[in-house]
Design goal:
Radius of gyration: 15 Å
Number of helices: 6
Strand content: 15-25%
Order of helices and strands: HEHEHEEEHEHEH
Helix content: 40-55%
CATH architecture: 3-Layer(aba) Sandwich
Largest sheet: 5 strands, parallel
CATH class: Alpha Beta
Number of strands: 7
CATH topology: Rossmann fold
Length: 162
């Protein structure tokens, strides 16, 4: 039986076979996993990311995120740092160890200096401060995909009303 810590993070590695299977899926479509427990924000992010033409899945906990990554793999995890009763920073080392090919963008509505320093130590791609504009997220995603020489879908950007 797998042991979990206080955030429900499983302490086992993904198998090589699972990584190979998921690599093929990953090449077919750029997939973004959003880990956010605020339903309104999660829905807005989903709409915004889909409007850009990317595949998106929303989960509200670390254990759901692990299950989704194990089943589908994702190119990018957009991670809310503060989840119900869990500091999601504890999830980043697990994700980096078990899925080093998956990029991470963190987001928070509370950004004390020490938190920003912790995030930098993990070398995440971006650290967003909530609330952020749809345009800001769109630019970050496009930049990331250009940098990785990955397929960029045709933009279907539309402004979301707050």
């Amino acid at each position: 039986m797998r042991k979990t810590n206080d955030c429900g993070i499983k302490n086992s590695l993904n198998t090589s076979e699972s990584r190979q299977k998921n690599k093929k899926k990953r090449e077919e479509s750029f997939s973004i996993l959003v880990v956010e427990d605020e339903p309104i924000l999660a829905k807005m992010l989903s709409i915004s990311i889909k409007a850009e033409g990317y595949s998106v899945k929303i989960v509200s906990s670390i254990s759901q995120a692990q299950k989704s990554i194990a089943a589908d793999d994702h190119n990018l995890v957009l991670l809310s740092i503060v989840l119900k009763n869990c500091n999601a920073l504890k999830f980043i080392p697990w994700l980096q160890e078990n899925h080093p090919e998956t990029d991470i963008i963190t987001m928070t509505d509370n950004n004390p200096r020490e938190l920003e320093e912790q995030v930098r130590e993990f070398r995440v791609l971006y650290h967003l401060i909530k609330p952020f504009a749809q345009k800001e997220l769109s630019q970050i995603l496009k930049h990331l995909f250009l940098k990785k020489n990955t397929y960029i879908p045709s933009s279907k950007t539309r402004q979301l009303q707050p």
